[in-house]
Design a protein that fits this description.
The two termini are 40 Å apart. 49% of the residues lie in helices and 15% in strands. By secondary structure, it is of the alpha+beta class. A hairpin with a 2-residue loop joins strand 2 and strand 3. The protein has twelve helices and ten strands. It has three domains: 127 residues, Butyryl-Coa Dehydrogenase, subunit A, domain 1, CATH 1.10.540.10; 109 residues, Butyryl-CoA Dehydrogenase, subunit A, domain 2, CATH 2.40.110.10; 154 residues, Butyryl-CoA Dehydrogenase, subunit A, domain 3 (Up-down Bundle), CATH 1.20.140.10.
Length: 400
């Protein structure tokens, strides 16, 4: 694989510890053995490997940032990012679903839930017994997720009654629990008066409306969720009433920083495949790797990838040292948006050049580089589009 983790141990601002390098190395080997062989079937059939997911949990690769008291492993965000990177190298679609559980659900619960909620859900999430999802995006909302939110929650005794629809929800069709955002006070303004709830799949009034068919990350289930007078116990509210916007913004920073690894891992794989193909593909009597035009492409791919990779490592290291109160605002808000912006842009560039180097083979749907190419585009859209990320970055710069 291009660029081992060892080179990041010396001469950088943050550095990787020997333990981090060892964890990443072991995880990389395990994921290539267990997850890489599954990717073609996942892509062909949009199939979710539930057995592999449980095995990942049993091997200790879920609940990475969760303290041991709640069933996790207490790793920092950079180490979790390294695990995500090598998982995405081996099987991007699996890593996409995994990150939703490990960060958007488990880490979110750990930071914001009550002790009773942590006891109820975290050990099972960490062990791979249950799958989680995050229900934020709605039809017609997109980048204006908070301001356009129509899903409502009304207190009725010891329950809330939820009504609304969530769309493009990763893990939605297979989730056992969903963190759902809903409007609880319409008088507080477009982006406030939001609360978060933990909805279990068996709750009255909840259903999966449809499983969606997407271009890339196939095998990571995507769905539309409907809440039709869904009864949610008051004890399943996450955090204080009308404070959901704070939970959401803090979670988005971590999501962006870690999601950048969903760009870095596949881009590393695509570069390795491009180098391998360039050495084997013979044209005009010699490997195309001998041609300066191909060498130029490989050099530019490497520089783009490693520049983004180093930046993402730095940002994740900062996240590891940042208190929860600082998330969702200020420097970390800018850096997280910038990390995903740069990683997504580098990923798109590397994938495009990798397909170009593969030529006609790269255009074939069943080739690995084609599968990787189809995963990339959504990283310029999800977790806030590239345009929104630039607004966050620029807004922070002019406010300083």
């Amino acid at each position: 694989m291009i660029s081992s983790f060892e080179e990041y141990r010396i001469g950088t601002q943050f550095g990787l510890s020997a333990e981090q390098v060892e964890i990443a190395g072991h995880a990389a080997a395990f994921f290539m053995d267990e997850l890489h062989p599954l990717q073609q079937r996942m892509d062909d059939e949009d199939w979710w490997p539930a057995d592999a997911y449980r095995k990942i949990g049993q091997m200790g690769y879920l609940g990475t940032t969760i303290p041991a008291d709640w069933g996790g492993h207490g790793l920092d965000y950079l180490t979790t990012g390294l695990i995500c990177e090598v998982m995405a190298y081996a099987n991007p679609a699996f890593a996409f679903s995994w990150l939703n559980v490990d960060n958007l659900v488990a880490d979110n619960l750990c930071r914001n839930a009550s002790d009773a909620q942590r006891r109820r859900y975290l050990p099972r999430l960490c062990g791979g017994e249950i799958v989680g999802a995050l229900g934020m995006t709605e039809p017609g909302a997109g980048s204006d997720a908070l301001g356009s939110m129509k899903t409502s929650a009304v207190r009725d005794g010891d329950h809330y009654i939820l009504n609304g629809t969530k769309i493009f929800i990763t893990n939605g069709p297979i989730a056992d629990i969903i963190i759902v955002y809903a409007r609880t006070d319409k008088t507080m303004g477009r982006s406030k008066g939001i609360s978060a709830f933990i909805v279990e799949k068996g709750f009255e009034g909840f259903r999966v409306a449809q499983k969606l068919d997407k271009m890339g990350f196939r095998g990571s289930p995507l769905g539309e969720l409907v809440f039709d007078n869904c009864k949610v116990p008051v004890e399943n509210r996450l955090g204080e009433e009308n404070a959901g916007h704070i939970i959401m913004h803090s979670g988005l920073d971590l999501e962006r920083a870690l999601s950048a690894m969903l760009c870095i891992g596949p881009a590393r794989r695509a570069l390795d495949l491009a180098i391998e193909h360039a050495k084997l593909r013979v044209q005009f009597g010699q490997p195309i790797a001998n041609f300066q035009m191909i060498q130029s492409k490989l050099a530019e791919m490497y520089v783009a990838l490693e520049s983004a990779r180093t930046f993402v490592y730095r940002v994740l290291d900062i996240c590891s040292q940042t208190s929860g109160q600082s998330l969702g605002r200020g420097r970390i808000h800018k850096l997280a948006a910038a990390a995903l912006f740069q990683a997504a842009r580098a990923g798109t560039f590397v994938m495009d050049e990798a397909v170009q180097i593969h030529g006609g083979l790269g255009y074939m749907r069943d080739s690995e580089v084609n599968r990787l190419y189809r995963t990339t585009k959504v990283m310029e859209i999800g977790a806030g589009s590239q345009e929104i990320r630039k607004l966050i970055i620029a807004g922070s710069l002019v406010a300083e």
